[in-house]
Amino acid sequence: MRGDIRRLAGAYEGATVSFADAPFPAMIAPRSEGEALIGHLRRTIGDARTVPMHVAPPFNGEDFALFLNRSPGTCTFLGVRRPDAEIRTSFPDFGAFDPDERAIGHGVRVLAPWLAGRAQG
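Structure (tokenized):
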């Protein structure tokens, strides 16, 4: 895939492509894991509040990829933006991150049953 990306970029004068060095592999969540979590969230909080997100691989700047190489799972974002706040305040990797801390309790109540069920096997 990286070769394809480099080849496509080569069609544009001056374009450069770089990828993160090891140890960060591409972050890949098994489809079955994601679909199972989506089902849980839709049953728990409803369709309108569940938005599956996909990134174009290689999404390899995320250290969570190291965890996913050892145990199947998903990378899940909990909507934490304050009402009427700018979108850039929603993402933990941005310097402007400013979560609505009331979302923490909501996230625990929604995800704890999911995690407990997975731990039981």
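The chain has a mean pLDDT of 84. Residues 102-119 form the longest helix (18 residues).
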